[in-house]
């Protein structure tokens, strides 16, 4: 269940665009410092913009009000209307007007889900932001249809295919898993073949017992079977062999590949638990990993954030909003809290 | 360019359905042998249908006239209208009314391209009709969009994914190639990165020189790069190393895997030449391989059959229609010739 709150009566995209333009315009006029209101100026991003502190919060609040409490379709219309009305790209204007973690959260949020995921995967294939985990997370927690939309968005944006970039920028056993995972188009029905579940649970158990963790058959099962089928297989594994598969994959806690396999299984079978764990580590860690926090909140707010919040509360005895409020501040905190369902829409 | 001929003025789907029903109805009434026209009866398919020879050809001609000279969209409408009007599945009625090679050609043709390819791939994963070649042909000669439509049709029809069945039913080096090929969603633009083309031509040359034909990098390049990019890479290969890649892959003519690699390259870079060769072998062989002939004609008639005909004429000094007419007969011959552009629409 989504955590996003949308007002009962949503303004038209034209009204929303006008509001955003106003929020930016006020900043723009005031930064010139050309009237009596001028109180205090600060330099920003090394250029000669000058901002009035007093005007700052108000406008960002307006941006949050307009952009955050809108669903993907509504944000898309706002971007289109904004471009048609003012001849400018809303994302570029946002980039100019805000900065830091707040900027990244707003930009990621404003993108449609497929574009956002395409961008996240693309970043995850780049040297400085390389991350097998993020590629895997997107490949395993999105629906087949949504993952295909990401692949289409990737074509449009990067003029290459996802599997092409992932295969090129990853290596070894991780590549052997990641390429089929990002290329998969799993069947999404509930039908389960119990005979197959039994035979494949046996295969998985044999391979894991032999420590053949990168075996082709194990990869085939994890990367091609429907989530329902996989669930049946893993339940049978648990019943038949006495341990959950993830327990059997925990023989060496320092082995990164084994951790990766366990996370794949978690993403495929209980994504809300996987995301709870990401948030837990992000928040508990020494310093907060804002990029991860932003990624999870912006990508799940319209999907299953309510379930993630439940899991978080259950596992940490603290509500997620309090944990986030304790670890973040300012407009960044405000946008995250709004996305996880705080305040009025 | 398609070879299919469609009449300048196409009857409505309702008229076409009515014509088909008439064609079947005549057969049906006459098979009962209940009127004075009864001349001669034959048993068919072990059931007690009795057919009048005299009425047979006429009706099949009508079926060909109505179904063969219609494009995919028109055939889809005919099937829908037929089902809505008569409460029956046109494909099932066809199956009952005709038989043999003619039946298979008509059924495959009547399906929409995505359903037809899904069926062909599914057959190719089954024990008795297993064929790595057919799976590869479909994966490599369809556009990215069309291949994705096949994957969707496969979900609907078989309640599993293509990659799931292909991965399950194939083994070894063939599986390593086939799974990424059927899962690919290649970028389709013309943009080419020449630096990459050079570096990947070098990789391919190294792997082939080392006889590392199943190397991961070689598979990655063939299964993920766009067709334009691959073309640039292979051109560079040819210029830089003095041989075409397919010449270098011909070191052992009895090695089935090497033949497979050469065909993949042909399918990806010049499908019309690949299909010409399939037709040449099908027709020249001892006895005709009707399944292959039917597959190529029904799947290419709406795509590039005119180019294939040109290639065939150039390579064999005989027009394809004459070659097909020499190797087939009856209604089967008629449907094939109609599909490759013979006669009036």
Task: Describe the structure in your own words.
Chains A, B: Belongs to the annexin family. Chains A, B: GO terms for molecular function: calcium ion binding; calcium-dependent phospholipid binding; phosphatidylserine binding. Chains A, B: Keywords: Annexin, Calcium, Calcium/phospholipid-binding, Metal-binding, Repeat. Chains A, B: One of its GO terms (cellular component) is plasma membrane. Two copies of one chain form a homodimer. Chain A contains 20 helices and no strands. Chain A is an all-alpha fold. Chain A has four domains: 86 residues, Annexin V, domain 1 (Orthogonal Bundle); 71 residues, Orthogonal Bundle (Annexin V, domain 1), CATH 1.10.220.10; 76 residues, Annexin (Annexin V, domain 1, Orthogonal Bundle), CATH 1.10.220; 69 residues, Annexin (Annexin V, domain 1, Orthogonal Bundle), CATH 1.10.220. Chain A is globular.
